[in-house]
Write a structure and sequence with these properties.
Strand order of the largest sheet: 3-4-5-6-8-7
Helix content: 40-55%
CATH architecture of the largest domain: Roll
CATH topology of the largest domain: Diaminopimelate Epimerase, Chain A, domain 1
Radius of gyration: 29 Å
Distance between the termini: 74 Å
Number of domains: 2
Largest sheet: 6 strands, mixed
């Protein structure tokens, strides 16, 4: 097995190389590793720059150089805890709002339908909200639309007992072009995104036409 480090430049003695700083190591083929390094003045400059960056980070934390890692780790843990709290609050708000929306359920061709625009900015939260509505609806079709960052989000859910008659995936494929998008999914759940949120109201009108056919 070859163990030498060859950089393509030969010297008479290792002392001619001086300070060597390894920057990166990776695999380039089976049994072959690549080591990237700088030497001499370039190595010293690299270390000085790294120390300067570390000092800047320490200054932001108002901490010593050797405290930066611990402070960063602590902040990451706090951020994760805050994210959990935010998700919990979203869940509580969704539960409250789902109760309010149930008063808007209507019946079309003998099927309970809940179609509404909601103020939810991300697809995951929209799905979670839809799950709560579906549990309360028991049997029916749900269509939710939302505007977020200049885009439209669509979610359609069909309860299991009705997937033989209606497909959420097919409904979304029909409606998504109305908001400048496309999407699809399973018979019981489908999502889509679009670039024309100003047309969101059109999907609710079209849904009634689709279900009445």
């Amino acid at each position: 097995m070859s163990m030498e480090l060859c950089g393509g430049t030969h010297v008479e003695r290792t002392g001619d190389i001086g300070f060597l700083k390894i920057l990166h190591e990776s695999a380039i083929a089976a049994g072959v590793r690549r080591i990237e390094a700088v030497t001499g003045k370039e190595a010293v400059a690299h270390v000085q720059k790294s120390e300067d960056e570390l000092k800047r980070a320490a200054g932001l934390f108002k901490a010593g150089l050797f405290e930066v890692y611990d402070r960063t780790d602590k902040l990451q843990k706090q951020a994760r805890e805050l994210e959990k709290e935010i998700e919990a609050l979203k869940g509580k708000l969704a539960a409250r709002d789902s109760g309010d929306l149930m008063s808007r359920v209507k019946e079309i061709a003998g099927v309970k339908v809940l179609a509404a625009e909601v103020s939810i900015a991300d697809a995951k939260t929209l799905r979670d909200f839809g799950d709560k509505l579906r549990d309360k609806l028991v049997s029916g079709v749900i269509l939710l639309g939302s505007k977020a960052d200049g885009k439209a989000l669509l979610l359609c859910m069909v309860t299991k007992d009705l997937t033989g008659k209606f497909s959420a995936g097919n409904i979304v494929k029909e409606l998504a072009p109305l908001v400048g998008g496309k999407g699809g999914g399973r018979p019981d759940m489908a999502q889509a995104g679009g670039t024309e949120p100003e047309n969101l109201s059109k999907i609710f009108v079209e849904l009634e036409k689709l279900l009445a056919k």
